[in-house]
């Protein structure tokens, strides 16, 4: 096959998979050669190679054979001289910082997802602080807080933000040695170094980075020697004033089986939490996804109210939300129908059922009353003293967050109060949550207890 034939084939792919996918996945790959029935393509990162292979491999192979090429298999390879070439990923122009392609001769990090950039990260109240902190670090200026510790529940965008920082740093400060990897990979590298008796190399390698990013650090809890090594690496980098960015699924103090000295080290910098998404953020994410789908599915019609419905009903995590939308678009495109409320309910019945809110207003009232040590009757009753009013507002806030009840309905369940009283209560708690660490902690504890 020649480069010209590949050019024609790419155009066919563009028509089949849509401009968005094409730009993200096909544009960055280059045809190299066909040898003994194997077509080899060069890719900027292993991540892109794996993704294309899994998602478009069959399609490419099919097109190749259709165009007469004698190919039985396709292969994606990161060329050895990659570091001198910029990667062609959509928003992130530069090559992935220390991606897997450098495994043999340098520090191996994890591949970065080209979709995870600041541009594609939708900001709302629950994640605005985390986003601002991430952006500050991504500027690559003097280190002001070390480490930056990002934490939050499953699928709330920790990895997305970490990758966004790495991409941005690489674009702004290409001379920096940025290393992103998961805590699991850190452990794997450490064990390998021990086994191969290359601890000196390992130490040297990790101490030579300018920015170290470790995702899902809770993974090393309970793994004593990995923790020990992590601690030394951490200290060495902090001493050299090198930026460290860590993510975890909970706050440093709450990670069980993590040594106290590590916990306190992790708390030294800026600890920010990604709160569970609220309705507005979910809607924003859905809208931005739909915008990015437009090019891929130009013919698709989306009825009013569908996104609002999804944002309201699927509150588990962003990954589930995204998955639901992807499925909905693919399904509608397949059957060639408008995305109506009916089609949505048909297509996503399992997801909707699974995320059906099971928490009741009564449960919330009971839990909150218990937490603040007041009687249920006082929570619902008319007394307006602070001792009862604050827990009442907390309970109203949680009802708004965790149930699908409307404000008037919530008001009715709280001794027939007006919906404006509920609205005021919810707003007050939102303000307190942002200003008062104790309140934020109480809310998180209650939410977890209720969702458990
Ligand atoms: N605010 C956001 N804007 C756009 N996309 C988001 C946002 N938050 C999360 N996502 C998307 O949701 C998915 C899950 O996010 P991510 O993998 O970063 O979550 P995580 O917090 O690292 O989860 P886990 O705890 O499972 O590691 C990703 O596809 C990500 O792009």
From TrEMBL:
Binding residues annotated for ATP, in chain numbering: 155, 157-159
Gene Ontology MF annotations: ATP binding; DNA replication origin binding; lipid binding
Major subcellular location class: cytoplasm
Annotated Gene3D superfamilies: 1.10.1750.10, 1.10.8.60, 3.30.300.180, P-loop containing nucleotide triphosphate hydrolases
InterPro entries on file: AAA+_ATPase, Chromosome_initiator_DnaA, Chromosome_initiator_DnaA-like, Chromosome_initiator_DnaA_CS, DnaA_C, DnaA_dom, DnaA_N_dom, DnaA_N_sf
Region (Disordered): 84-106
Domain Chromosomal replication initiator DnaA C-terminal: residue ranges: 360-429
Family to which this protein belongs: Belongs to the DnaA family.
Function description: Plays an essential role in the initiation and regulation of chromosomal replication. ATP-DnaA binds to the origin of replication (oriC) to initiate formation of the DNA replication initiation complex once per cell cycle. Binds the DnaA box (a 9 base pair repeat at the origin) and separates the double-stranded (ds)DNA. Forms a right-handed helical filament on oriC DNA; dsDNA binds to the exterior of the filament while single-stranded (ss)DNA is stabiized in the filament's interior.
Record protein name field: Chromosomal replication initiator protein DnaA
Naturally occurring in which organism (per UniProt): Shimia aestuarii
Name of the gene encoding the protein in the UniProt record: dnaA
């Amino acid at each position: 096959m020649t480069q010209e034939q590949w050019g024609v084939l790419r155009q066919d792919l563009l028509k089949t998979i849509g401009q968005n996918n094409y730009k993200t996945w096909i544009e960055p790959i280059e045809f190299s050669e066909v040898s003994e029935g194997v077509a080899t393509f060069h890719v900027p990162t292993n991540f892109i190679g794996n993704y294309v292979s899994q998602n478009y491999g069959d399609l490419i192979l099919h097109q190749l054979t259709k165009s007469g090429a004698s190919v039985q298999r396709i292969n994606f390879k990161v060329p050895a001289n990659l570091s001198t070439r910029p990667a062609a990923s959509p928003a992130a122009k530069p090559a992935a910082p220390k991606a897997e392609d450098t495994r043999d001769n340098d520090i191996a990090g994890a591949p970065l997802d080209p979709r995870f950039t600041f541009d594609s990260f939708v900001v709302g109240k629950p994640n605005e602080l985390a986003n601002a902190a991430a952006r500050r670090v991504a500027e690559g200026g003097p280190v002001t807080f070390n480490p930056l510790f990002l934490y939050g529940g499953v699928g709330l965008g920790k990895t997305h933000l970490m990758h966004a920082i790495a991409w941005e740093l690489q674009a702004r400060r290409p001379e920096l040695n940025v290393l992103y990897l998961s805590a699991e990979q850190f452990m794997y590298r450490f064990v390998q170094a021990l086994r191969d008796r290359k601890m000196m190399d390992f130490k040297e390698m990790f101490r030579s980075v300018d920015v170290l990013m470790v995702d899902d650090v809770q993974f090393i809890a309970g793994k004593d020697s990995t923790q020990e090594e992590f601690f030394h690496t951490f200290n060495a980098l902090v001493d050299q004033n090198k930026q460290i960015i860590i993510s975890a699924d909970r706050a440093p103090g709450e990670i069980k089986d993590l040594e106290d000295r590590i916990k306190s080290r992790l708390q030294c910098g800026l600890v920010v939490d990604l709160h569970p998404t609220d309705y507005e953020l979910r809607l924003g994410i859905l809208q931005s996804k739909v915008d990015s789908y437009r090019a891929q599915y130009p013919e698709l019609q989306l009825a009013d109210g569908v996104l609002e419905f999804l944002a309201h009903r699927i509150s588990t995590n962003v990954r589930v939300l995204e998955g639901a939308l992807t499925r909905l678009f693919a399904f509608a495109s397949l059957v060639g129908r408008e995305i109506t409320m009916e089609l949505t309910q048909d297509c996503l019945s399992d997801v909707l059922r699974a995320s059906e809110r099971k928490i009741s207003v009564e449960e919330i009232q009971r839990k909150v009353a218990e937490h603040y040590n007041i009687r249920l009757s006082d929570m619902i009753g008319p007394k307006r003293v602070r001792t009862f009013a604050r827990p009442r507002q907390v309970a109203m806030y949680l009802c708004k967050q965790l149930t699908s009840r409307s404000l008037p309905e919530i008001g009715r369940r709280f001794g027939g109060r007006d919906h404006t009283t509920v609205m005021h209560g919810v707003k007050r708690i939102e303000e307190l949550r942002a200003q008062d660490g104790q309140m934020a902690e109480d809310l998180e504890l209650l939410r977890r207890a209720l969702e458990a």
